[in-house]
Write a structure and sequence with these properties.
This protein is 64% helix and 5% strand. By secondary structure, the chain is mostly helical. It has a two-stranded antiparallel sheet with strand order 1-2. It is flat.
């Protein structure tokens, strides 16, 4: 009985001590751990975000350093539009799934196109040709599909052909794919740094 009272007393002290400190600990610093039972033992688990470590860039001359800084600037300009494209595409796809007839789908796509033009056409006109090329690549990175295929799926092959022809006039290609481990490795590194708050 004494042992039971002692345990109860110690537990009560811990609870009262916790309740006194509870108000002094900001909620943002608290972290809830999940548990898993392994061979009868309780193991606490916590999710740790991936950490990316990139080598420090060494440039042979100031021209290379300037080009890298310029690439960072261009990616910072284009990346938010690629994220927005991913979000809008998801919204459009989810809404299209609720429509029953092809006529309803076409009307919705036409209306969505008008709204997107009104909202973003002026902003996108201010992108440089380089920023536009980066945006095309980043759309493929974010959505998993090329701009050409996205236009073809939503507006049809003829529209995709016309937009590809316009893009070609400006030296771009809507069929460009994102190669994270090849030619687009630096862009991918910059995007990851942006996501992690390093840039």
């Amino acid at each position: 009985m004494r042992i039971f009272l002692l345990i109860l007393f110690i537990t009560g002290l811990n609870i009262s001590g916790y309740s006194q400190k509870k108000d002094s600990v900001p909620p943002s610093s608290l972290h809830v751990l999940s548990v898993k039972v392994v061979d009868g033992d309780t193991v606490y688990q916590s999710h740790i975000s991936e950490v990316y470590i990139f080598p420090k860039h060494r440039f042979k001359n100031s021209w290379q350093a300037w080009r890298y800084r310029r690439l960072i600037h261009n990616v910072k300009v284009a990346y938010p539009y690629a994220q927005l494209a991913k979000k809008k595409l998801l919204e459009i796809s989810n809404h299209l799934a609720t429509l029953k007839t092809e006529r309803e789908r076409k009307a919705y796509i036409d209306q969505a196109e008008i709204e997107l033009r009104d909202e973003f056409e002026d902003k996108l006109k201010h992108l440089t040709i380089t920023q536009g090329r980066i945006l095309i690549k980043l759309i493929d990175r974010e959505t998993g599909d090329t701009s050409y295929n996205l236009v073809r799926e939503l507006k049809g092959s003829f529209s995709a052909f016309l937009w590809q022809a316009v893009a070609r006039l400006f030296g771009s290609n809507l069929k460009s794919t994102f190669d994270a481990s090849g030619e687009d490795q630096l862009i991918n590194e910059i995007v990851i740094k942006i996501q992690n708050g390093q840039l």
